[in-house]
Amino acid sequence: MSNSYCAGRSPGVITGRTTPVGSRHRLPDMTPTEPAPPGFRSARGWTWPVVIMGVVAVGATIALVVPYVGLDVDASRIPTTSTLHYALLVAHIVTASVALVLGPLQFVPAVRARRAVHRVIGRCYLLVGVVPSALVGIPVAILSGRLLTQVGLTIPFLGWLVTAWLAVRAIRGGDVVAHHEWMMRNYALTFLAITARVLVPVMLVVQIPFSDGADPAAGVSSLIPVGQVLAWIVNLTIVEVLIRRRRVRAGLPARAAV
Question: TM spans, by residue (predicted)?
Answer without folding.
Answer: 50-71, 83-103, 124-142, 148-168, 189-210, 222-243
